[in-house]
Amino acid sequence: MAEEQSAPKQPMFALQRLYAKDISFESPNSPQVFQGEWKPQVNMDLNTENQQLSENQWEVVLTLTVTAKVNDKAAFIVEIQQAGVFLIEGLSPQQTAQTLGAFCPNILFPYARETIDSLVVKGSFPALMLQPVNFDAIYADAVRRQQAEAAPKH
Fold first, then answer.
1. What is the phi-psi region of residue 31: left when phi exceeds 0, alpha when psi lies from -120 to 50, beta otherwise?
2. The domain containing residue 89 runs over which residues?
């Protein structure tokens, strides 16, 4: 009698759903902000979060907040939570963490960037094409910081 051995699961990754979870646009100093020269200081903050929905499904949320100031007054503030549900199977815990922390945000970013640009233009501001973000480097830096914090102090 031959024993059946279950074959290891083949790695599987799929984007199952893509959606905007939250969107906000503010132009608190309009219309006065349109009166001066347009030389904004633009700042972007980003954050990613994930939660496991089932054994092999994860929600990843990329939050981007873009603030443009002219002469220290807010011209506009845009925030979006771009989210996706991803199927992830057959990866090691380390590979899963990297997929959630770097690969999934790389997929979500272009959608968030396009939405931000569209909202800014609808607010009567010049188009804002955000530069690409290196989520792999951000993830690697976060892992290094975690390891440094966890290392025993002498």
1. alpha
2. 12-146
